[in-house]
Amino acid sequence: MKGALRRGGDAHAGAAASAERAVAEVRAEFPDWTITDTETEDGRRWWASRGAPTSTILNRDSDLSASSPEALRSKLRAHR
Q: How confident is the prediction along the chain (80 residues), in pLDDT tens digits per residue?
């Protein structure tokens, strides 16, 4: 998997705080899923999986990904 899991202490504190709020909102709406966001060369990517977030798990066919939290929510709602 390209990129790295985002961690606290990002240089872009405002964007990081906004991303944290978005992650918390998606997690609250879909508590049975593990929600993770990553930063790649192409920008931020949002992931949902039914297990711990590792590169192997995030590449399973059953995992979902999107380029925004709104798009991920839409995929999760369709997956119910």
A: 444 455 444 455 777 788 888 889 999 999 989 888 888 788 888 888 886 656 555 566 668 889 999 999 999 999 87
pLDDT at residue 57, rounded to an integer:
56
Structure tokens at 59: 């590449």
Q: Could you give the C-alpha distances from 40 to 1, 9, 43, 60, 64, in angstroms and in order?
A: 9, 17, 5, 19, 16
Q: What gap in Å lies between CA 48 and CA 62, rounded to an integer?
A: 9
Q: What is the DSSP string of the chain?
A: --SEE--S--S-HHHHHHHHHHHHHHHHH-TTSEEEEEEETTEEEEEEESS---TTGGGSTT-EEESSHHHHHHHHHHH-
